[in-house]
């Protein structure tokens, strides 16, 4: 009797669980068990702890797939004992002690940096925090290029911001050092420089890296291809 891993899809910044909807449908249609929990985008440590808690509640093995900032989240959350595979989708792969800002800072800026909005929010007993989001008018081109225009407009006004502090927060764990991984590079990405993706994947020595002529929101433009990579990870980590 085989044990097939549950797939947990982890969204990134400026998005929510709905960003995975086309791939979620694809995996469900293929017969896989899928969970798509929210990521609160409050801090790397807290977000990773939240996803790890979801994974640890699964009775059996888990494959984590993280998009964008979700890649950094699964790099840490993937340390859970029942996580058997990691799939990075247009994502950040952090080393221990490395932050998003440090990793991205080693490469030329994407189009994202010039189109960010910074909004303060109050924190009890401390200085205000800062939420970071993408300019609504720039969102379709920067983040949702290739997505149906009407859908991109909805995504733009419903984006979940990322707290600014997360950009400088170092990763405490690099789960890819002990857990097999797979990666997808979006070669037409305007949110993350594709070279950031390639560098992280090469450093992590992922089992397989697939390059797609796709924008950052590759789950919407190439759902079957993304599902194929996740399916490969599930099949190769299933136990007899």
From TrEMBL:
Database matches in InterPro entries: AB_hydrolase_1, AB_hydrolase_fold, Sec-Metab_Biosynth_Hydrolase
Organism: Conyzicola lurida
Protein name per its UniProtKB record: Pimeloyl-ACP methyl ester carboxylesterase
Gene3D superfamilies (UniProt xref): alpha/beta hydrolase
Ranges for domain AB hydrolase-1: 7-229
Listed GO MF terms: catalytic activity
